[in-house]
Amino acid sequence: MTEMVYGAAPDRGGEPILPKWWRTLDKWSMSCVLILFVIGLLLGLAASPPLASRNGFDPFHYVERQAFFGGMAIVAMLLTSMMSPTLVRRLAVLGFVVSFVALALLPFLGTDFGKGAVRWYSLGFASLQPSEFLKPGFVVVAAWMFAASQEINGPPGRLWSFALCMAIVGMLVMQPDFGQACLVLFGWGVMYFVAGAPMLLLVCMAAIVVLGGMFAYSNSEHFARRIDGFLSPEVDPTTQLGYATNAIMEGGLFGVGVGEGQVKWSLPDAHTDFIIAVAAEEYGLILVIMIIALYAMIVVRSLLRLMRERDPFIRLAGTGLACMFGVQAMINMGVAVRLLPAKGMTLPFVSYGGSSLIAGGIAMGMLLAFTRTRPQGGLGEILRGRG
User: Fold this and answer.
1) Looking at the DSSP assignment, which residues form a beta bridge with residue 111?
2) Are 131 and 143 in contact (CB under 8 A)?
3) Which DSSP letter does residue 10 get?
């Protein structure tokens, strides 16, 4: 009866790891991730050759690198999804500490690659963006603190997690990287809401975010320029937003045809931040709706499975990861259709980017590990616990 209500899987003692993993895994979500990755490769074949030609590389240089990093991401996702929640938490804490230190050292050792924001470490053969790896680690660490604060005589986990969140947001704003800062703050806010935050406090936090945005607008030329471009009633056709908007309109319902799109020749970030514009122009609204449906299925299925979870740490960590994943996709696509200011944020598993792909694979592996069906205890045990 308990399994019918909570969807729990019976504990089969001595069952091998791989059969148990496959039996308890959310196969639909994993399939959606793999489909998104394949779509990303197909769009990379269309979007990246012009950039490779301009930079003096082979036509499929960026596609080959995306396939390589994507393969690493898939392996990381599968391995992480096989772990127990306790092991995921331990590795997340370790990864968070390393990423936090790397983020703090960026102003001294990082580079901006001519883009005006110091976000990367140059490794020679590739670049590394610490904030991408910091996000899933922070979500898990913050969820652990929230869960610990709910215990009798537990530590002030909410305060600790808030202090960590503010430290991370502060370092990201200094880069500047307002998009990632908003994403981290959103992830923390979602977990705080699920953990039982008072609505008044959430409203106060929203007001602080608005005031922070006004302060950034007044003191950051980079931030002000993007906001002004977003609020302008007319779109400059020679800007990235102008090219992307025109490409989406040209694509229509079924697109102009594979390889026939023109936006990839004009957009320097056609293979990363504005990959959805390439999809809309060459394949039309049909492919865009399919991509949105894949992201929605991952998020909704994950949240539905987490609703049956009674471990507060698993529920909070999984909710934070799922919501952050979905909102990042929404931000990327929202920027392309001019619903949001330009953020410089990738589309998970679709855009080109080694750090984004591998960190996304780790984060999705964590989410799959948290959403695996597991024994939830007998009904009598639950009633005794409530009594």
Assistant:
1) 120
2) no
3) P
pTM of the model: 0.89
Which two three-digit tokens encode residue 132? 């991408």
Mean pLDDT of 315-324: 96
Residue 199 lies in a domain: no
What number is the average pLDDT over the span 160-181?
A: 89
Domain that holds residue 296: 16-128+217-375
Per residue in 100-132, pLDDT (tens digit) is: 999 999 988 888 877 777 888 988 778 889 999
* pLDDT for the residue 14: 65
Identify residue 289 by its one-letter amino acid code.
Answer: I
Higher pLDDT, 12 or 269: 269
- Rounded Cα gap, residues 371 and 369, in angstroms: 6
**145 belongs to a structural domain:** no
Q: Evaluate whether residue 290 is within a structural domain.
A: yes
Q: Which amino acid is at 77?
A: M
Residue 3's CB is within 10 A of a number of other CB atoms, namely 12
Under 8 Å CB-to-CB from 113, ≥6 apart: which residues? 120, 122, 127
Question: What's the CA gap between 52 and 29, in Å, rounded?
Answer: 33
Q: How far apart are CA 202 and CA 274, in angstroms?
A: 32
Domain total for the chain?
Answer: 1
Residues in the chain: 387
Q: Which two tokens stand for residue 338?
A: 């001019």
> CB neighbours of 276 closer than 8 A, spacing ≥ 6?
288, 291, 332, 333, 336, 347, 350
Q: Is residue 177 part of a domain?
A: no
Residue 122 phi/psi, 5-degree rounding, is -90, 120
| pLDDT tens digits for range 75-91 | 999 999 999 999 999 99
